[in-house]
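Write out the 3D structure for:
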Amino acid sequence: LEQIQLVIFSVNWCKSSILVLGFNLSFCFLSGPSAPPANVRGNSTNTTSIFVQWDQVPAAYQNGLILYYTITYRACNGGISHAVVVVAPKTQTTLTGLKESTCYSISVSASTVKGVGHSSYITIATGKNNQFPFSGFNVEAKTTAMKNDNIMTQA
């Protein structure tokens, strides 16, 4: 006879189960948070820095313990994306070393052991006290339910 080894474990976030040969098997689809961090906002603290803060992912959509947040940013006119990781429960950071009077697209996503969740996006420019040297600039904030699958990072 062949020996069959059965490993049984319990995970409290599994909600699906099937009955196979008289055994009730639970299974899970690993997934990060199903909603983005809420209320992402920011302001330029000087000509080369932007302070960014956000609220936690709503509890019902966390899908586990939030371990860290990834803040990705790049100039609105293109260029290389940069990423900063903030360890939870902290929900703020200052992006430094930015170009003066430049628009930046910034995204914030949360991660659990199960993966990366959706991102929230804002667009903001560097400038002293949010006074920009060009007219007609509109600071835009939006939240989308897009997956942050591919991020180029540069240290």
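The CA atoms of residues 70 and 85 lie 5 Å apart.
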